Give the backbone structure.
Amino acid sequence: MAGIRDVARQAGVSPATVSRVINGTTPVAADKRERVLRAIEEMGFVPNEVARSLFKKSSKTIGVIIPSIRNPYFTQLADVIDAAAKERGYRIVLYNVHHDLDQERAALQMLAAANADGVIVASNNEALQEELAHYQMPVVVVDALFQTRQVNAYLYCDYYQGGRLAAEHLTACGCRNLVCIRGVQGLYTAQARYEGYRDYCREHGLTEQVVECDYDFEAGLSMTEELLERFPQVDGIVACNDMVAISVYKILHKRNIAVPDQIQLVGFDDIHLASLISPELTTIHQPIDAMGRRAVEVILNEGHLPKEGRRQSFPVSLVPRETTRSKESR
Amino acid sequence: MAGIRDVARQAGVSPATVSRVINGTTPVAADKRERVLRAIEEMGFVPNEVARSLFKKSSKTIGVIIPSIRNPYFTQLADVIDAAAKERGYRIVLYNVHHDLDQERAALQMLAAANADGVIVASNNEALQEELAHYQMPVVVVDALFQTRQVNAYLYCDYYQGGRLAAEHLTACGCRNLVCIRGVQGLYTAQARYEGYRDYCREHGLTEQVVECDYDFEAGLSMTEELLERFPQVDGIVACNDMVAISVYKILHKRNIAVPDQIQLVGFDDIHLASLISPELTTIHQPIDAMGRRAVEVILNEGHLPKEGRRQSFPVSLVPRETTRSKESR
DNA sequence: CTGAAAGCGCTTACAG
DNA sequence: CTGAAAGCGCTTACAG
């Protein structure tokens, strides 16, 4: 690997001058500049980023920590963040931590050790908040809400309202026996959705019927079986996310239960897949793009501000499609 | 940020000794070791990886370059690679290059500049092969096949056989009017699938009918419309990958064309989603897990060997499910 | 405009 | 077993 001193020797200048040409930090005489550029070209020189960031303490990198690379929600989020970061000259490093606290910790450490310019973490792990407070790099938490104020921002949606909207919509579509497949409680994002559903039921004299489930499709498959056993009279299901909703549909379809004729179904997230599968999934839309872009903005524009755990909530909306019998969807 | 000299001062030893304790490279007297460990604990010291890898020229990192983070095929591949790498103490850095040559180049440069220990690239971009030859770090190409021998290995599937199997299966299921939605030609992976289909048709006196399409679902949607217009008598479709197959199904469903009764459908890849949607997709299985694990193995075990562009082909198989009327699937 | 020098935070011969 | 020193490949005051 050619280094900056090799280039300097070949161009007959000092390493400092080569550095100046590369970075454009200080004017350099036209002829020397030429020679340096030619030498760089000839030698195929590429500046060593490691050395560079050792000095600069910035690596033009934003870390993105997601709990699962298999859930399209996170994958879409990562994709917008990626696009937004690239527009500003940053790259992202994606850490797929498999919902594992140790891996989350490791990712955070690596990012800190690698001079990352900030980290965007989508994690529900309560235990992570202590960790977060250890680091001084900018941190944005997306799709979760913790107690600690030691982060630059929390970006999340009005999940409670989402839960309400789902219950309300199903009721408007004629359902009387709603069952909520809620995510693991204790997690804010899952809790709020459930509470929205619950409050709506209470206010409208509906029986509250609940089943609990992890956010992935394997869990969704088995939990749906259980649901049908425990609540055979169910006519409307609120799923905790779209992947689970897709699993629910799969089981219903397998059992020849017509959707939406016998059972109606509402998902949560509005991932691309929701409108790609057949029937298209009625779901609660999260503004994933807006959240991702905002996250990058906070890191880059407000990362230097003191951490105050500011909260920003994004609105959700119900998108009626083919798994419910709404008037709008026909 | 506390540095190694701060720790050294507090423990009353030299920085070198601290380094030895951290790395376990040389025995250190028990009492000093104790003091160092305590100091590290108290100060919350984390060794700076950038400085470390500047010296070591290894960053315990494997770069993974994928063309799209939205196609579950690549996401599943990245996930196995991630798992396999972590088992060996390496982490991966995922670059989502949006099928863009400039982004691919940039990713490669960054990886080289970041002292990556190897790179696994899933890209069909012919133009990339020149680039690949520039770098001396280990390179494995997955799901593609180029001419250059300047890579450590090509890992791919017997796509040709996959194309044949799909055509053969549809024929066995009673189809007489096969249409192949092939990927953009010129790419080996797409070409070979098509040729398998084509040769089967020729050998069995079937008319070859083709439509061309990008590998994502947006393209699949519009191409299906075109297909139905051009080949109204179609009764069997070979799709270039599962995401496209899902789009095909969507359009057929929208038009009330029964699958598999009126038109039968075979996908390619066997991503998780293929068996999650309803109806389950009949598809050509690629051993994604085996390929991903093998890729890591090559980087880590054979990365130091001279680059000879060795090729390793993995077998494919047809998985009959619900979008075809095979006897086995019922 | 330019070079010599010091330093980013570590690690490893080298000499004891 | 341990410390002083040199160096990984860059960048930026500093002095001209």
Q: What stands out?
A: The longest strand of chain B covers residues 61-66. Residues 142 and 155 of chain B are 5 Å apart (CA to CA).
